[in-house]
Write a structure and sequence with these properties.
8-stranded mixed β-sheet; 326 residues; 10 helices; globular; Rossmann fold; 18% strand; alpha/beta; 8 strands
Length: 326
């Protein structure tokens, strides 16, 4: 019986044909020249094709990001949000988003919270801090996702409107921030102040959350929080850590940490030292180290993206916030 699925591996030694290939190529060049067809057009066509492929790849990556992050919305996708760009500190404009209405298909707790908000009560709030790429669409989508859980979210901007598209540009932007850490801390302190000033925010229920570079900044905000604007929780996704017990003692609220055991930037040892410092100071904490995943595993646009671990980490994040902010 004939099997159409049989595959043949044919190996051809092309070395004997190289002289003929060279002759054909030379003939092709002569022919093109005789037709007065500029050779640089061939290069331009090739470059145009490459650029088109790169654009298609970028669009594909962006679509994947939106699709993956939208899965985190769960049953809350029907909640209507209000969003706008707001100036909260000098030249820093953040992305503010919060829920304004819902339908009967959403969870009763969120629905009742939004309903209560319409009666001039308030929401807990979140200062959300971007990765080293800047305040891009990924972060805005995450701000919207959290807002649908019943929070007012301000996605802060530590780059004054700049967004990196390459590793080199991201490195340059993050280096500028790290060269002047007091400015970024001042920026985030004003983000907390801004949220506390809003009529629809419960000023005693403001937390911070960041990924990667933003995770480290979330911890720095906790270590430099203004006494009159204390936080209610700190969330760190694989950010740079501090293990000095005296420094950690400044934190007076629960801490959630999300990490991967294959992270080459944030070692498991440093995570354990951080956890020990929290415990030594009696600080309530939940530290999770996911096996088999590396740095930035919760970013759908990255090579280390781990969808199952991302979903589980987000569920833990939502549960943690519900426990300490609501």
């Amino acid at each position: 019986m004939h099997n159409s699925s049989i595959k043949y591996n044919i190996v051809v030694d092309t070395s004997m044909y190289k002289p003929y290939i060279t002759i054909v190529f030379v003939f092709f060049i002569i022919l093109i020249s005789s037709l007065n067809f500029p050779l640089n057009n061939i290069v331009l066509l090739a470059e145009g094709q490459q650029q088109q492929e790169q654009q298609q790849s970028a669009i594909s990556g962006s679509t994947k990001t939106v699709t993956e992050l939208s899965k985190l919305n769960g049953k809350n996708s029907s909640i209507t949000l209000e969003n706008k760009t707001v100036n909260y500190f000098e030249n820093a404009n953040g992305y503010l988003v919060y829920p304004i209405s819902t339908t009967t298909t959403t969870s009763s707790s969120i629905e009742s919270n939004i309903s209560a908000n319409n009666d001039n009560t308030t929401f807990p709030a979140m200062v959300m801090i971007h990765e080293w790429w800047g305040l891009n669409e990924n972060i805005k989508i995450m701000a919207e996702t959290l807002a649908k859980e019943g929070y007012v979210v301000l996605a802060a901007d530590l780059y004054n409107g700049q967004v990196a598209n390459t590793t080199e540009s991201a490195q340059n932007l993050v280096s500028k921030v790290r060269e002047n850490p007091s400015e970024s801390i001042n920026n985030l302190q004003h983000a907390v102040r801004y949220l506390a000033s809003l009529e629809n925010v419960n000023s005693s229920k403001i937390a911070s959350l960041g990924w990667c570079f933003g995770g480290g900044q979330s911890l720095q905000l906790a270590l430099n929080t203004e006494p009159e604007y204390p936080l209610a929780a700190t969330i760190i996704y694989y950010g740079n850590l501090v293990s000095d017990q005296e420094s950690i003692s400044k934190i007076k609220w629960p801490v959630l940490g999300i990490f991967g055991d294959q992270d080459k930037s944030i070692s498991v040892e440093s995570v354990k030292q951080f956890e020990e410092a929290l415990n030594a100071n009696g600080i309530t904490n939940e530290i999770y180290i996911y096996k088999g995943v590396g740095h930035a595993f919760a970013n759908p646009s990255g090579d280390n993206y781990a969808p199952q671990e991302t979903q589980d980490a987000w569920e833990k994040t939502v549960s943690f916030l519900k426990k300490y902010l609501k």
